[in-house]
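ingest -> fold -> write
write: protein_1
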Amino acid sequence: MYSPTPDDWREANRARWDERVAIHTASDFYDLDAFRAGKDALRAFELAEVGDVTGKSLLHLQCHIGLDTLSWARHGAAHVVGLDFSEPAVDAARGLARELGFTPDRAAFVAADVHDAAEAVPDSSYDIVYTGIGALNWLPDTRRWAEIAAALVAPGGFLYLAEFHPLTDCLDDATGSTITYDYFSRDAWVDETPGTYADLEAPTVHNRSVEWQHPVGDVVSALAAAGLRIEFLHEHDASLFQRFAALERHADGFHRFPSDRPRIPLMYSIKASRPAAG
């Protein structure tokens, strides 16, 4: 249900994520055995749009258990830092880094709220600031987020964001064919659904979550206002999840509407750069 932002939103969300770390690390969804064996956690469009990261520093905001972060290190980033507000998630990420042979100077993880990132991360700026899919909906204010993230982009560097398209949150849950919810709503969405996307049947206790919907225009405008130059905004007709029953899984692992239905954007990505010094 939509409601004004509750005072305990951060604590409620942290308790929810803390509890789900153990479920996620044991799940087939994350398949840590395959990841340890070399499976890439990044999506093909992200690799193509970010480009070669060899020798670069990369900061991953809201990194969860660090699979995307460590994948960037595997692709040649010289130094990656993952930040998440869940200490159990950061502990899991650090354990994975050790198992894969990454020393802290190659892959470090920090437990801190994203709003405190500037004070928490080891360096003042990074060649790439990365935010992966399913992160912005946990933050109430995109303008504040953009200011924090942009300040951590080094001159000549860029921010890259991949995210679920907010249009999907406006469609009816059953078919994804009817506009049911307000695209421009600024209210919090409070939910108490048990389980987790990685295991829908998992028994859980901390089920209350508080999320927000952010129109794409707000995100782009916030990044521009924070001093970054928008290089591109790409919209994608595929989703990582079967968000609606009508979505069909394709050979590339993405879910799309059937070919006889009009396409809509299900995800989007943005690259925004900081001009080089001088």
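write: protein_2
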Amino acid sequence: MEDRRRGSQPQYNDEISLVDLASTFLKRRRVFYAVLFSALLAGIIYAMLMPERYDYVSLVKLAEKAPGNYIDNPAAIIATLESQWLPEYQSTYHAEHDQSIPFKVQFENPENTGLIRVVSEASPSQAEVVKQVHAQLIDELLEAQTAAVSSLKRNLERQIESLTSTIKMLEGSEGATDAGTAIAAAFEKRLALEVTLSSIQPMEVLAVSRESAGRKGPARSLIVLLAGLLGLMGGVFLAFVTEFASLVKAQLAEM
């Protein structure tokens, strides 16, 4: 009896051969082609219509009181640019144009240098606006640096004048004890101040809104290639999903 019951049970074959897979794929190849060509077409259209964007870079060298010794710390300058001068200009720009600046403005300081890089990624149509923004920020920085240089020079000149007066006074009192030592020390200090004064270099603008050689973002060929790969995978998947849905529909119709 038990053997008879076993023999009456239906036998299911769950194995799927490569021939079945190939047959299913060929049967639904139109779905595969439709998905693949649609993805490729979308990728080509996107690649052609994707706006070109470039990096626009402005570069300045901060004022120095000696080679490698900068009047203002580059990190402090960047903090001022980010927290004060840029927000002020953003407010002015919004008031004049009723919109925000249509690109980001970033500030960088290459390590161990007194260089400040102002970088914006924008399209060529925005190049003039980028130049205006960068120029305005550089003007603010130049004004601050010029004031710092003038203040340092005045301070050094006052110290030099004071030492000169001290030297003259000491030279007039030749009989004073240790006058010669004091005069020598004053001369040495005045010379050091004069060297510092002559070594001061003002801020230098090296570039304003210079366009990068290559455009930003992925290459158009890469976009088309990725679209083709996505279309290939999506086409295979949808071909088998379509066949599965067709079998389920047929099975439900027989019930």
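write: annotation protein_2
Helices lie at 2-8, 18-27, 29-49, 74-97, 127-171, 179-199, 220-254.
The beta strands are 54-61, 64-66, 69-70, 106-108, 115-122, 204-211.
pipeline exit 0
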